[in-house]
Amino acid sequence: MLTNIWNNIIEWFKDRSEKAQLIRSFNDSAKNAFITNQAPTLLKAKISKGEKSYRHQFSNWLNTGFRIQAFSGRQLSKEEIKQIGEVILNDNILVRRLIVLGWDTLEIHGDKGNYGLRWQLKDYIALPQ
Amino acid sequence: MNDTLFTDTIKATSEVVTKTDAATTNSINYWMWIAILELVIIVLLILSRKKPDSKKELFKREAKQGDIDFGNIINSSFHVKPLYDELKVKCHPDRFPNDIEKNKIALAIFQEISKNKTNYKKLIELKELAKQKLNINF
What is the residue range of B116's domain? Predict the structure, then answer.
């Protein structure tokens, strides 16, 4: 039992560190792409509250949303948001990583307007029973 | 008189020093053993880390392997759609009805294109392949 608690504590710290690292890597890549003019819009990832009904067995207790904000200076169309979402959801390695690190919701929205899209991550990967 | 007082003072002082020293030594020993015990527990816990046995733990371990190409993901988010639209038209197998060999290659490339329609890097590779094998001018 003590070993189990100890393992959980270590895993929790490890996961927190990996989550922060993943967000940092995403933001660094997005920033570089924007600076070098490879991407017309700056993307920024952060942790959000998430959607409770999307929970799965790896979900964290709190803050289970992976939110990407697109700083385009205008309201993004549904197709543009969908495109970004599909690219992320079709990357199996990324979706798996997001799931095991405790995220269950992918949210994408722009910096103008109130429109955004939200996906349930567990729909895109077969999780162990 | 003074000598007696002096001797008594020295005696009393040495007794106090001896007692304090003994008390301090005992105290140090006590805390030292607690520290050693804690160290042993920590070392044992670190060494006895559980190996992944359940499916959940194995899945987690596997999912943490492999690198994520964030640069490709960012590029794909903005540039993949026009490239995919171009490739799916130019590499369609129906464009090679008379040449069976090219038709087969085009079919294989077209299937790969459909499978990787949101992966910019892979589509660029397939574009190069189509240029070489199908002689398509983009």
Answer: 67-134
